Amino acid sequence: MEETISLQDLFKTLKKRLALILTCMILALTIAGVVSYLLMTPIYQSSTQILVNQTQQEQEQFTSQEIQTNLQLINTYNVIIKSPAILEKVIERLTLDMTPSQLTQKITVNSAENSQVLNVTVQDPEPHRAADIANTTAEVFEEEIPQLMNVDNVNILSPAVVGENPAPVKPDPMLNMAIGAVIGLMIGVGIAFLLEYLDTSIKNERDVEELLDMPILGLISPIPDSDVNLDNIVRNRRKRR
Taking the first listed entry, what is the main subcellular location of this protein, grouped into a coarse class (predicted)? Predict the structure, then answer.
């Protein structure tokens, strides 16, 4: 016999297991909050901007071909900035206890489309160290690029600074708690339907009809407890007589 589940049955299951679903959601939300506020290390971010242009020439003398050449060089500069040739000197100047490969994971280099500005972004648990790494990386790159590529078209446009009350960029506790609540809700709903599926007990006449594949001919109404107690009293009095 093919078993079908109506939308009404689904809502009944959710209503029946509402306490379980809410418990799972609150538990997941609490775990996400504890992990975000107490266990995860706050990460701070600092950025510096590098301008790629022809410093020997005046701005008015720029041609479209020269600008296009600079834009093409930016892709090369993205690789050079994160290369050991640059990062080893950054580590040496700042006396960092890490390898170039470890430092590279903290640095992100990107540029806006058709822009001659490179953004060097550094993320680190210490806000001042993040700014120092960003500024030193830009300075070392500016010093080394004439020797590496025989060009002098790099200038630091905007150094990284640390505000009075720097805020971490991650983790985001509110976002993590929202995600945790959604995951907990999904887990709770899944457990609710699983328990309902595994529950094979007979609850009503419909279950009997589906189980035996036979129509229901009649029902026996339940006897209230008050009527049962009254019958017992009458019987006890008759016995005493």
Answer: membrane
